[in-house]
From TrEMBL:
Pfam families: GerE, Response_reg. Residues 1-21 are annotated as: Disordered. The modification 4-aspartylphosphate is found at D74. One of its GO terms (biological process) is regulation of DNA-templated transcription. InterPro entries: CheY-like_superfamily, NreC/VraR/RcsB-like_REC, Sig_transdc_resp-reg_C-effctor, Sig_transdc_resp-reg_receiver, Tscrpt_reg_LuxR_C, WalR-like. This is LuxR family two component transcriptional regulator. Residues 23-141 form the Response regulatory domain. The lineage of its organism: Bacteria, Bacillati, Actinomycetota, Actinomycetes, Micrococcales. PROSITE patterns: HTH_LUXR_1, HTH_LUXR_2, RESPONSE_REGULATORY. Keywords: DNA-binding, Phosphoprotein, Transcription, Transcription regulation. Residues 169-234 form the HTH luxR-type domain. The keyword DNA-binding applies. One of its GO terms (molecular function) is DNA binding.
Amino acid sequence: MSAPGADPTRPGGAAEEGTRPVRVVVVDDQATIRLGLRLILDHDPGIDVVGEAGDGRAAVDVVRRERPDVVLMDVRMPRMSGIEAIEVLTADAELARVRALVLTTFDDEDYLAGALAAGASGFLLKDAEPAELLTAVRRVAAGDSVLDPAVTHRVVTGYVAARRACPAVDPRLALLSPRELEVLDAVTRGLSNLEIGRELFCSEATVKSHVRSLLTKLDLVNRVQLVVFAYSSGLVTP
């Protein structure tokens, strides 16, 4: 990951008066990577790194203590993997507002699929540009999903292959209204709530309501799992 520049790494500019910075915990077993990530994140006045950890078990302790908005989580780590840590955090009702953004080297489909199932809110490659990282952190904190296109393609390909091997139609599709199907399609294309509202000519609050309804009806955790459902159910094809 390249060193941060001036303006390109500040998508939001200075934090607006009265707006609380996005609180982030950085988790990676390599100290040099943690340092680089902290330098990039701390360069943005709207983001505050409140803690870091070198393995999943320590990450759980730090998150429970600091209650961040976003955990920037590595996958392969000693003692407890990032996926196991996300599972623990997702199962804790007191940490329901904490969202996990997986930062991966993208070398194992099983790890990616496991992170999806665990409840990760997004995936980003470790060679992402600083501006991409900052934007991803902000979007995840706001409740959106972030999926690197390469990661999305690889994970979706695996799910589609599994669906073709067992092509039964997912009965949960029948639970969705036409409007919810439109919102699901837009989520699958990576649009934010604001962008979906503009496309469907409705308010951002209405979009959020539809997304909550989708998650409830489909018994899913977040928007990333909505994307996987859309592909694995056959609603959307690559």
